[in-house]
Amino acid sequence: MRAFGLIAVIIVLGVGFYVYQQRATTMAPGGASPTEQIDVTAIRQRLLTIAQTERQYQASNGKYATLEELSSENLLPGGTEQRGYTYTAEIRSNGFTITATPSDPAKRDWPTLQVTESMTVTER
Predict the structure, then answer these.
(1) How far from the centroid of its chain's Cα atoms is residue 24's Cα?
(2) In sequence order, which residues have a C-beta less than 8 Å from that of residue 102 and are 6 or more positions away?
(3) What is the 3-state secondary structure (H, E, C) of the chain?
(4) pTM across the whole model
(5) What are phi and psi of 96, to 5 degrees?
(6) 47-83: pLDDT as tens digits
(7) Pairwise CA distance, residues 106 & 118, whole Å
(8) Fewer CB within 10 A of the end CB, N or C, for the chain?
């Protein structure tokens, strides 16, 4: 009788865990998985950090820097690839646009993010 009770508890826990996993995936805004939400949030933060570094570089040097220049001066820890995204920069005399594009094939449907000198992150 005890074995039957233990088996029933294990089955109920298994079903509960399965339902929990399904709900966690479908409850995400826009259908995004929790992993995607976490990575995109990290990418947004990274873009803001790079943009702040660009502003500081401009204040010190009178111009915005390429990502290669930032990296060569150890101002871009982690380089131009992180969490399956590749960072590129378009530098203008009066501003910049830093773009994070998914480079991991498993993330090809994830959003591309951009930040400009206004410190506004946008998704496409």
Answers:
(1) 19
(2) 84, 85, 108, 109, 110, 111, 112
(3) CHHHHHHHHHHHHHHHHHHHHHHHHHCCHHHCCHHHHHHHHHHHHHHHHHHHHHHHHHHHHCCCCCHHHHHHCCCCCCCCEECCEEEEEEEECCEEEEEEEECCHHHCCCCCEEEECCCCEEEC
(4) 0.73
(5) -155, 160
(6) 999 999 999 999 999 999 999 999 999 999 888 998 9
(7) 31
(8) N
